[in-house]
Amino acid sequence: MKYRYQDEMSPPPARRVTDVAITRFEHVFEVEPALMTDHVTQQDFPNWDTLRLVRSRADHLAWMHRHFADKVLSGEELLHDLDE
Amino acid sequence: MPDPEKRPETTPEKRFAEEWRNAAYNCFSSGHKFCREVCPVTQVTRNESWSPTAFHANVVAMEQGELEIADVAADYVNCTGCGACELRCPNSLFTGDFYRFRTRTVDLVKAVRGLAVRQGVHQPAWQRWNLLTDERGHEPVLNGTPVDQARVRDWAAGLDLPIGGETILFVDCEAAFHRTSVPRAVARILNLAGYKFGLMHEQWCCGGPAAEMGYEEQARRFARHNLDDWRAGGVRRVLVLDPHDYVTFTEDYPAYFGDAYDIEIVLVVELLAELIREGRLTPHVPVERTVTYHDPCRLNKRKGVWREPREILRAIPGLTFHDVDRVTQWSYCSGAGGGLPVEKPELTARISEQRVGKAAELGVDTLVSACPWSERPLSEAGRARSIDVVDLHELLAESLGVAP
């Protein structure tokens, strides 16, 4: 990872996904920035930090599955258990 | 506690809290506290006043006028800046990229320490450390023997490295004066690969440690000097072997200089992995050790760099490598960061002992790190368990057949 300020602080162009969400990186969604101007304003977010969080989340979820998920249940089975 | 009768309308604490209140309430109102179990200080002390949650809760109390900085400044010593808490926080890990608003406990701790220093509340060892750094231009890493600006390049003796050039290698204070075999290994490896680089004209400490301990003006002054030196020498690219420097150059310097910061920063461990991938380096000398790898916090947690060190280790013949995955290692730390070993070496030692204990459970004889700062406390803890602590760059140099 070569760090250059201008590269990191220039996010890819945003593409609208819904009225309240945009996307800049593949499979990564962000809230519409206009909704983050009144109470909580957005932070400076270099590209590396967005990608670090996305990749860490995937790694963490995989880790959780490896450590704690030893069985896969369908939603139907869960509902059936609740009914009983 | 402040006297309510004499409490002014606006205090430095309240002005500080205005900036940090949203993040503080975010934490205070969530209360899930996943941060605590990955925090190295909490793990060994179970002191709730030293937890990442408490660091945010104090800001809420400051905003309410219930706390002055002098009441809590000493609590904020108890953080290595490892970044585990802020990464594990759901407000970062699960929503940070969505809102472009994440938990920034490391920045908060630095800011509180800065507030304390501005208010004249000093921690004695930190004050002395930064005074000596200011006097000498480098951190006093030699246990009482003064460091010397004239000797900052002594580690490179006999290597015939040029001064200046488009690409330079920046060597942190610990490696330049104490762990000198690490930069020598890096230099020899880069020379072997035919990678051209030089050294700085007048290198000062990066300023990162001063920033971490709250001495912001000093940190900025040192950063200004280094950037000016780079520009005067026509430097376009800085190679960094120390993860702490890497964070300073890619987070602090951009915050200080903004758009004017036009230097490319390259992490040496990533460069070496690339050179191996390209076939420009081929480790061939077997290294008969049973090792595990310590993910330096500032690489793994704070920068997401964990693949390349493992790539390098797996390229070294002869090694038996017992890997522990990067997520498990979010809760590992050497205890060497954030100024903790300066002010509370006994706490650093407890954290290091815990980390080396994890390595001992694997039955290894060697713990490999890629952070010069981690290697001193880890080595001290390793001696009690007959576990060698070895730097990744040195290990690679050995396998490439280049002597330090």
From TrEMBL, chain A:
Top-level taxonomic group: Bacteria
Protein name as it appears in the record: Uncharacterized protein
Organism, scientific name: Nonomuraea jiangxiensis
UniProtKB/TrEMBL annotation, chain B:
Entry-linked InterPro entries: 4Fe4S_Fe-S-bd (IPR017896), 4Fe4S_Fe_S_CS (IPR017900), Cys_rich_dom (IPR004017), HdrC_iron-sulfur_subunit (IPR051460), Helical_ferredxn (IPR009051)
GO cellular component: plasma membrane
Gene Ontology molecular functions: 4 iron, 4 sulfur cluster binding; metal ion binding; oxidoreductase activity
Record has Endoplasmic reticulum as a keyword: no
Listed Pfam families: CCG, Fer4_8
Keywords recorded for this protein, A-Z: 4Fe-4S, Iron, Iron-sulfur, Metal-binding, Oxidoreductase
Limits of the 4Fe-4S ferredoxin-type domain: 70-99
Protein name: Heterodisulfide reductase subunit D
Organism: Nonomuraea jiangxiensis
